[in-house]
Every structure is written in structure tokens, then in C-alpha cells.
Amino acid sequence: MADQIYNAVFIGSIYALFALGFTLVFSVLDILNLAHPALFTLGAFVALFAMQQGVPAALAVVVAFLVCGVAGVLLDRVAFAPLRRRNAPPLSAMISSIGVSLIIIRLIQLKYGPDLQAYPQGSLPADVMTVAGLQIDTLRTVIIGLAVALMVGLTVLVRRSRLGRELRALAENPRAARLLGIDVDRAIAATFFLSAGLGGVAGALYGFATNSPFSQMGLNFELKAFSVMIVGGMGSIPGAVLGAYLLSFGEVASLTFLPSELRDAFAFGLLFIVLLVRPSGILGQRAVDRV
Amino acid sequence: MLREIPERPAILALSGLTKRFGGVIAVNAVDLAVAQGQVFGLIGPNGAGKTTLINLISGNFRADGGAIRFGGTDVTRMRPHELARRGIARTFQAIRLFKGLTVLENVLVGRYVRSRPDVLASLVPFRAVGSIEREASRAILDRFGLGARAGALAAELSYGDQRRLEIARALASEPRLLILDEPAAGMNPTESAALSGMLRQLADAGLTIILIEHDVRLVMGACERVAVLNFGRKIAEGSPADIQADPGVREAYLGSGDDA
Amino acid sequence: MEDLQAFFDAYQTTIGFIGINAILALSVWLTLYTGQLTLGNAAFMGIAAYGSALLTLKAGFPFPLALLCGALLAAAISLPLGATVFRLRGVYLAIATLAFGEVVRVAILAIPLTGRGQGLVGIPTKTELWHIYVSLLVIAYVCARLRISSAGRAWSAIREDEVAAASQGIPVQRYKLAAFVLGALIAGWAGGIAAHFNFAIQPDEYGFARAVQILVFAIVGGIPNVFGPIMGAIVLTGLPAVLQPLQEYRDILQGTILVIVIVYAPRGLATLLDVRRAARLRNVGAQDVA
Question: Which position among A227, B120, C81, C217 has the lowest Cβ density within 10 Å, counted as fewest Cβ atoms?
Fold first, then answer.
């Protein structure tokens, strides 16, 4: 039981980290960035590459953050910025991100193939403690701590900092933001850097925990992240965190009455029901426009 | 304030119509009767609830209280497309044309309720589709002086032409009630005078028209009867001359600093 | 003549899949033309693929009847689904239909009759190339004629402006639903044909990747007319097959084409047929995709 709770906290933290970056871009720019899962996967493989060159795991996470962050900014320049200039509808951006996603995943496959990989032996902490009958491994505990720290950090950044104020103004009304003297291009670049960076870190951490990164690892998270964001409320940062833990605990709980191959049914069933009953999610604003 | 009963039967009757947005009462217990063939003016300062009122009549908003009767039936709960089929056509304050369609296609869509369904017929090989409707639509465009621009995209028209196209599209459905939300906005005096003449003509042919307008000359020239809204309430109703003389109306306009 | 025969033999599978993909692209075209982005057609394809394959494999149904039943099953499921999800718009609609697709995939995994993760093997390979291309021809014809009918006009009005469309008397929800159900029927037909072209089917074939793939064909080809989706399917299915050495780079090629099209030719390859109208639409900033 306690074991399962621990597991739910762990997987919920990864969901949250993944969904935060996803939801950040959506809240500021109204773009559903379907290349986010590819950046997640990229994070796991950048860490793998770095560690194969002898970089320690902790530093490899930082490298994954930076590389994915830069990739996110590039993604915006290539796939989204031209559409913004043209005032194209938000769905164009979503479709364009699918194209970038195909490219990133294929590039990863060209280097590492489609199969499961493993991090260099001995590069990850492997010790397991038993606390009050609960099996706790150091790696997962550190990952949970780091994920929570990043969630808190992002929330503080958005709520308190100047950048956060700029992002909120931008989310509210891009034209007004520009008139207020906000450097919109810089704020957008910062959004993508943070979003993709967080996605990359989530990928690296999940890769560590499973020690089996593979080129399609982002796919399942993408679908789960939809669930997380819709349940919590699209574009809401606290909503994404809440949705992530709700989903992870729900999934673990569902295993007690559903066979394990139906584990995924919980996420999509939940997503579907929330969309139909309350599409704005628990903490979101209205989603269904009337006249 | 005059409260004479219109001598012709009311085609549209609102009673106690109310709409709230959160705590704000946008339309507050409005009673209104519009007679068949009348050009009925609706004026009032910005934010008085005029557009909300017509959104209620056209079914775009749901009323929170009161009733709407159109042609003798209760239509309070009906949705826009049902009302359109019953003969209510409208234009929008911010023009809502089908921008990416041609001028002719816009009018063709406007004829939707008048067209026979041709989905199955269209599947017959080599059969011409919609030629009758095309004829009718061209005739309407010619009447509005837009015939030469039939192949242009709606968004390529000048602002004044877009306004006229929107009216043409609304008339294409051969409605019984036409609601115009600031049709003269963006028109020059000549165009707006022509519009005024056209509205009179249409009314003489039996069409009922509700007109929201800031152009006082247009309202006074075209309307038989005018109602004034302020803060969601009807504060006056009568002939244009009565309204101009009404001290309460002057107060409402001067008080709000509006120039209409 | 012999050369032609040899060509057909060598490329039989590719030629078949070009046709099947073109049918799938047309199935999603209907909703895209109405301005709605739905991602459920891979699931409808899967439902009909399993439905029809089980009918021929286990119940001994004749092939055409099985195809029809499979497609009708997909359409029957799409009706209540559409009636509920079309309260949503934009990304919410896309996500809801995607979630439905995943529910279907999981359901297939859970039902023992479907062979679960192993899929169904030994499906009679009844599909001939001419079945595929006659189907494509008929479906393309129906779509093209519908496009110029009053229904097509209503669909494009809804795409341009839903509120204004309703004000012209168009029952918006009903037309959206009609496009969706017809799309499901077509996707289902393609699913049945594909299942009997292939000998074996697996649940993963009908997941997210397929949903995206179908969308990409239609978008790259373009929505303005029915040639767009067909062209998209031909180019994106045919190109990698013709350029064998590029096989490894297929996704990169597709991804690049998709981004270039969305950024520089948002109405797709079909606009190459009518460059002037495309330029005018761009100038007035009309809706491009969805």
C-alpha cells in the first residue's frame, strides 16, 4: 500500500513536470505544442549522450535542460513565429508542431535506433533503503524532490518575477503587452526556453528512473498530459500539478479494480468525462465559447 | 410619452424581457411591440443594452426572464437557426460576413432557408447544382449594386460594400423581420441616405425592420417609431418627433456624454 | 505491357496503401472542410477493421457485406460520440476525439475476441487493387458533389463563421455531426479494406500515430477541394516508396513538408491548382486550416 503511494507520488511528479511545460506554452500563447513529447524524449537522450561522454548524472540533467531549452526556442522560430506574424489560427501551430515532432523523433532514432537504451553502468545511484518497511530508492526520492522544487520554482517565477508579470500580460492580450513596453519576442523566447527545458528535465529524470529511454517514450506521456491538463484546467499551472497527482493516484487506485492492461483506460476515460462534463477543468476558465 | 397602440397587429412582442450577465442586468424587463411593416428604431447611449436586446430576439442569447412572441408564437427558447427559418434575419454590429467566400456565395448561403435541399440531387452525375439559387442570388446582388463584384471575396470589398452585402445576405432569406445593428456605421452621407430610402421601400413592401443606429438623421428619417434604452430599461417610446422632444431622453444622452 | 505488370507486382502494396490513405484523407477532409479538427478517424478505421475482419474470419460473412457492416458500425458509434463532443471546439475537440481513439485502442486490448495485443492474424486477403480504387473514385465523387451542394455551402459557412451561419438558418450542430458521421463511415470503409489487404491487424495501428498521419495527408494536400487530400496521400505515401534510399528519412521528409506547407502554403498542395485564389485568400486573412 505504502509502496503504491510512493509510486503514485513519483509518477505524478513526472506527469506534473511534463504537463507544466506543456501548459505554460498553452497559457501564454494558446498553442498546443505537440512537439513537447519529442522534447521530453530529447531530454532523456541528451542526458544519455552526455553521460556516455563521462558527464555525471546531475550535470547531465542541467545539460538536458539547456539543450532542450534552446531547441524549444528554435522550434518557436521555425514552426510558430512565422504563423504568429501571419495571425494564423492556433490550430495551425498545433499542426506545424506535429511536423517538428516527427523530425526530432526520427533524428533521435537515426542516432540511437528505435530500441530501449540504458545509461552507462554505475552512472546512476542504485542504493535502496528500507524505511519502516517501505522500499525507497535514492534515485526516485531525489527525482521527486527535484520535481517538486522545479514546480515551486516555476510557480514563484510566474507569480512573483518581472518575467512572470510579462508572461501574464502577454497571455491576457499580446497587443496590449507590446504597448506596455514589454519585449514580446524575448518573453515568448523565455516561455519556450522554460517550457522545453522543463520537458527535457522531465524526460531525463524519467529516463533515469526507468533506465530505459527509447524514442517513443514521449508518446504515452503526451496522451496522459492531455488528461492532466484538461482535468486540472487548460493553461492553469496549479491545475496541471493537481491534475498530475490526481491522475497518478487514480491510476494506482484503479489497478485494484481494473486489470493492468486497462490502466490507461482510466486516464482517457477520466479525460473524456471531464471534457464532456466540465471542459474548463477543475481550476480552469471557460472552455466552451458561446456567442 | 405616447403609449398609443399600433393600429396594425404586432409581429414581434417582447414582454418583461430580461438578461443578466453576472451581477449586471443588461436588459431589464423590456416590453416592446413592433407592428408588421414598421421601421422601428432602437436608440440609446453606448452600453444601454440595444445589442443585447437584439441578440435575445435573434436567439443568440438566452433570456433570463420574460417572453418573446414572433408572428403569434412563443419563440423565447428558440435557437438562432430556428428563428432564421421562421423569418428573422439580422446583421451584426461588427460585420460577420463569410470572409473567405465570394460575394455571390455569401448571398447563396443567405438563401439557405429558401433553397430546396439538393444533397441527393447533387449526387446525380452531370446534373447542374444550384443554378436556380444562383440566379436569385445574382438578382439580389444587382439590386444592391454589387453585381459586378459577385466573384470577389467578401473581405476584398470596401467597408461600405461589406455593410451592404451583409444586408443583401440577410434579405436573401426573404425574412419577415429584418434586424439591422448599426448598418450605416462607416457609410458616407450619400450611402446612408440611399440606405434610408431603401429601408422605407422594404417596409412599404411589408417587411418589418428593427434598426439600431447612432446616425440620428437616419433614425429620424427612416423610422416610424422609436424606443429608447438606457441602463437596460426602456425609458421612452413614440414617434421620432416625440422622442426628440422628450426631456428624459435628452437627459440620458447628455448625462452619459454620448454624442448620438 | 509486361513491364507494367512487373511494376504493379513490385509496388502492389504501396499502390494499395496510396489508395487507402487517400480514402482516409478524404474521411477527415469532411470535418476539416467544416472547420472542425477531429482526430477520431483512426479509431473508426480500427473499429471497422476489427469488425469486418471478425465477420469474415469468425462468422464467415461474404467480404462486401462484412465491409459494409464494419463501416456502419463505425458510423453508428460516431453518432452519439459526435452528438456529445461537438459541444467543444478547437483544441478541446481535437483532444476529446483523440481520447476517444485511445479508449477504443484500450478496449480492443481488453476484449479477448480481438486477440488483444497480438491482434488478428489470418484475415482472408480479399481486397484487390481495383476494390481500393473504385472505392476511392466513388468516395471522391460523392465528396466533390457534396461540396458544391447546399450541404457543402453550409459546411463552408460554418467554417468561416459559425454564428453568422446559424443566423442564416443553418443548423450548425447537425451539419457538423453529418460531416463527422460521414467521415466515420468512410474511414470505416477504408479500415475494412485495409484489414483484408493485409492478412493481419494490430491495435497499435489505429492509435495516435495513425490519427496524426491521416490529418497530415489532408493538411499537406489542402482542404479547399477534394483533390487536396488525395494529392497529399499520394505524395506522402508515394514519395518515400519511390525514393527508396530515403526510406530512413521518411519522417523527416514528411515533417519538413508539413512545416513548410503550414508556414508557406497553409491551404496545401491543392492551392497549386489555383494560385491566384490562394493569394487572394491569404491577402484577406481568411481562415486557412480548421
Answer: B120
Closest-CA residue to C170 (of A29, B98, A260, A99): B98
- Cell for A257? 479494480
Q: For chain C, what percent of residues have pLDDT higher than 70?
A: 95
Residue written as grid cell 448625462:
B255
User: Which of C151, C170, C281 minimises the CB distance to B100?
Assistant: C281
Number of other CB atoms surrounding residue B190 within 10 Å: 9
C255 to chain A: nearest residue by CA?
A: A99
Interface test with C, best of B60, B91, B101 (most C CBs within 10 A): B101
Of the candidates A24, A23, A69, A22, the residue with the CA atom closest to the CA atom of residue A43 = A69
pLDDT at A289 over 50: no
Total beta-carbon pairs less than 8 A apart between chain A and chain B: 3
Q: Which of B80, B53, B198 is nearest to A290 (CA)?
A: B80
Between residues A65 and C262, which one has the greater pLDDT? A65
Chains that touch A (3 or more CB pairs under 8 A): B, C
Q: Counting Cβ atoms within 10 Å, is residue C136 exposed (0-12), middle (13-18) or buried (19+)?
A: buried
Q: Average pLDDT, stretch C218-230?
A: 92
List of chain A residues whose C-beta atoms are within 8 Å of the C-beta of residue B60? 291
Q: Is B20 helix (H, G, I), strand (E, B) or coil?
A: strand
Q: What is the ipTM of this complex?
A: 0.90
Give the pLDDT band of residue B13 (cuts 50, 70, 90): very high
Angle at C20 between CA C82 and CA C238, to 5 degrees: 125
CA–CA distance, A215 with A206 (Å, rounded to integer): 13
Identify which of A98, A106, A262 has the shortest CB distance to residue C212.
Answer: A98
Please report, for residues A92, C34, C146, C223, C275, the alpha-carbon distance to residue C156 in angstroms, rounded to integers and kept in the order given: 18, 6, 11, 11, 20
What count of CB pairs under 8 Å joins A to C? 146
Half-sphere exposure of C118 (CA within 13 A, CB side): 7
Of the pLDDT bands very low, low, confident and very high (cuts 50, 70, 90), residue C47 is: very high
> Would an 8 Å CB–CB cutoff place C211 in contact with chain A?
no
Residue B132 Cα, gap to closest chain C Cα (Å)? 12
Contact state of B129 with C170 under an 8 Å Cβ cutoff: no
Which set of grid coordinates corresponds to residue C168? 442564416
Closest residue on chain C to A234 (Cα): C92
Collect all residues from C whose CB is shorter than 8 A from any CB in B. 142, 145-146, 148-151, 153-154, 156-157, 160-161, 163-172, 280-281, 283-287
> For residue B102, what is its C-alpha cell?
465570394
